[in-house]
Amino acid sequence: MDMKLELVPIPVSDVDRAKRFYTEQLGFVADVDVTPADGVRVVQLTPPGSACSIGLGTGLDAYEAVPGSVRALHLVVDDIEKARAELVGRGVDIGPIQDVGGGVKYAGFSDPDGNSLTLQEMAWRTGDAF
After folding, report:
1. 3-state secondary structure of 126
2. Alpha-carbon distances of 43 from 65, 70, 83, rounded to whole Å
3. Cβ atoms of residues 121 and 105 within 8 Å
4. DSSP E strands: which ranges in 47-95?
5. Could you tell me which residues are beta bridge partners of residue 54?
6. How far apart are CA 11 and CA 91, in angstroms?
7. Looking only at Cα atoms, what is the longest distance across the chain?
8. pLDDT tens per residue, range 51-81
9. Using CA atoms, how far apart are residues 31 and 38, in angstroms rounded to an integer?
10. Spatial contact of 25 and 92, defined as CB atoms under 8 Å apart
């Protein structure tokens, strides 16, 4: 039996502001932005190259968590120095790269609500292995 994680809800206080951050500053693709019923909005955004998306929205239980309560959502990259520099160039306030050993490096940042995200590079998942 296959199971594929394809959507992670992210609680935010302002869907439009969050959508701008994820698309304009992080480069996520806006796949869905619909209002299927009064008071319900569903936005689905996908990081470039990812099979898993994030969901933002209103009016559904999936989006009722406290804004800013998601921690350490990992965005795996093949070159953390290049990825960090690109995000800094787009105005993202991102911490320094930390080499934690074993070929793993991290650099953390937060979205406008305080949900934290982490760039992660793993030495064995670069180049053709990425």
Report:
1. coil
2. 16, 17, 24
3. yes
4. 53-58, 73-76
5. 8, 45
6. 22
7. 50
8. 999 999 999 999 999 999 999 999 999 999 9
9. 21
10. yes
Nearest CA-CA partner of 41 in 68, 8, 14, 70: 14
Query: Strand 98-101 vs strand 104-110: parallel, antiparallel, or unpaired?
Result: antiparallel
Amino acid at 55: G
Q: State the amino acid at position 61 in one-letter form.
A: D
Two tokens at 52?
């898993």
In angstroms, rounded to a whole number, what is the distance separating the alpha carbons of residues 10 and 24? 17
Q: What's the distance, CA 9 to chain centroid? A: 10
Q: Which two tokens stand for residue 26?
A: 């992080």
Alpha-carbon span 67 to 14, nearest angstrom: 9
Predicted pLDDT at 125: 80
CA angle 76-66-41, nearest 5°? 80
Tokens, residue 123: 């030495």
Is pTM beyond 0.85? Reply is: yes
